[in-house]
UniProtKB/TrEMBL annotation:
<protein>
    <submittedName>
        <fullName>DinB superfamily protein</fullName>
    </submittedName>
</protein>
<dbReference type="InterPro" id="IPR024775">
    <property type="entry name" value="DinB-like"/>
</dbReference>
<dbReference type="Pfam" id="PF12867">
    <property type="entry name" value="DinB_2"/>
</dbReference>
<feature type="domain" description="DinB-like">
    <location>
        <begin position="43"/>
        <end position="171"/>
    </location>
</feature>
<dbReference type="InterPro" id="IPR034660">
    <property type="entry name" value="DinB/YfiT-like"/>
</dbReference>
Length: 180
């Protein structure tokens, strides 16, 4: 039972499942989710106190503050990966240790407002560039150095839409459990 609870706390919307076919409708829906994410996140966290922001969403997880900063950092990497992929031939991207980044002082202590503002501009740019991708661009890919896997741009659109919703659910589920 404890493993089930940990799984539900870790993956409140489930793990990402890639579609069999990357239809135009699927991609447009996921880009719309990416575009909407900053405003939804802001509505969920704007009223939280410092104590609430520094609450862990689960044992062994991150605080709400760390989750917010992590979303910006991860999605900045997404944007850069898209740019590399559009301008280089199958680039090997640079990986980063998200846990070490989340343990840095800025992620632990910085106010969330600058990061929420960053997410607004970043997600506008992500949605803009994603909407401009041609069929040929969507097939362009990068290589992840962790395992050598190749990812097409069409694949990461759904992944990053899920990623934002995944961490948003960490926050909303914590708020429900604590009656915030």
């Amino acid at each position: 039972m404890e493993n089930l609870n940990l799984e539900k706390l870790s993956y409140p919307i489930g793990k990402f499942t890639a579609p069999r076919i990357y239809s135009k409708n699927y991609l447009l829906e996921k880009i719309a989710e990416i575009a909407a994410f900053p405003e939804i996140l802001k509505k969920e966290v704007a009223h939280l106190t410092a104590l609430q922001l520094d609450t862990y969403y689960r044992e062994g997880g991150w605080t709400v503050r760390q989750l917010i900063h992590h979303c910006a950092e991860s999605h900045m990497n997404c944007y850069i990966r898209i740019k590399w992929t559009l301008t280089e031939n199958k680039p090997v991207i640079k990986q980063y240790d998200e846990n070490l980044w989340s343990d840095l002082n800025d992620s632990l202590t910085m106010p969330i407002e600058p990061t929420l503002s960053l997410l607004e501009g970043l997600h506008f740019r992500l949605a803009y560039i994603m909407n401009s991708l041609s069929e040929k661009d969507l097939e362009k890919s990068f290589i992840h150095p962790e395992n050598g896997n190749e990812f097409a741009l069409k694949e990461i659109i759904g992944t990053y839409a899920w990623h934002g919703n995944h961490h948003l659910a960490h926050i909303t589920e914590l708020k429900k459990r604590n009656n915030w």
